[in-house]
Specification:
It contains seven helices and 18 strands. By secondary structure, the chain is α+β, with helices and mostly antiparallel strands. The protein folds into two domains: about 160 residues, Glucose Oxidase, domain 3 (2-Layer Sandwich); about 140 residues, FAD/NAD(P)-binding domain (3-Layer(bba) Sandwich). The strands form six sheets. Strands 1, 10, 11, 12, 13, 16 and 17 form a seven-stranded antiparallel sheet that branches. The radius of gyration is 22 Å and the shape is globular.
Length: about 325
Amino acid sequence: MECGGGAAIVDVIVADGRRQSMFRSFVYPILDNPNLTVVTQAMVTGLSVAANRVTGVEVCRDGRLQHVGARAEVVLSLGAINSPKLLMQSGIGDAAELRGFGIEVRQHLPGVGKNLQDHACLPVNYEFSEPVTATHQGATQLFWTSDPALDAPDLFCCQAVTPLASPENMARFGDLPPPCWTLAGSLTHPRSRGSIRLSGPGPDDPVRVELNSLSDPDDFKLAVSCVEFLREIGNSAALRPFVKREVMPGNLKGDELRTFIRNGLIPYWHSSGTAKLGDDSLSVVGSDLRVHGMENLRVADASVMPTLPRGHTNWPTVMIAERAATLVAAA
């Protein structure tokens, strides 16, 4: 994915024939450790802050508000949606926006919630030539360049034995047939940026997720090329034995194809970048993952990525967590 491109079976974490989550791999084996407490059915509602020093977190559990003190520091790992939400509702973010909701400003950091990125998913669907039984939800992945002059892929695609389409396009083309497979393409490094914004000051107030996918004209142009490229693959002679028909989009051109892409766009759930690492005016954390201007507070999740990686965000996020663990242990 960092050189000329290619295709391969996707690496997945499998143990004893079963997919493994990060929780199952990292946390479950040490649940009995005396220095670890896992609390479920609890929601963190805010950070406890004295001046610019974070002293703990407020947690709602069983309908009661509880304070959990931090003897050393607090590490937020709530993801690119909820980490900025908690920061903003605790007074860390754009001062003007926070004051608009009556939130006391603890630290003016205008980059909190900005710079939202995701790999916009562009599904192309095919009906199998005959019924199949999927015994393993494996997938293949392709990284490719739209221009041979590029030194690294600007397109990627996951192929899976599963139907995937937006409600808007299914309303137009009809429900996908059960024996269906999908080419789910995307741009490796989209230029479009979105944001996470508050809708209210309380922990139960939902955030406003504004993805703005393909809002950059160059992104949209490349998305059209991506879908056309996927159709070439799906309708190729090599895959003809597996194709009864192309379900969508079919041979659309011009405005019809652009409408299909606008209606068919769905997230890849690779949300990143909303508390980005750096030292510019929109950065939120430094290289030690500490929140600028705050003491005893770090962020360790995909929100700190300044830009999306070319591929999936799973392992880069694990690497951020490993780095955070090293920094905390050395503090």
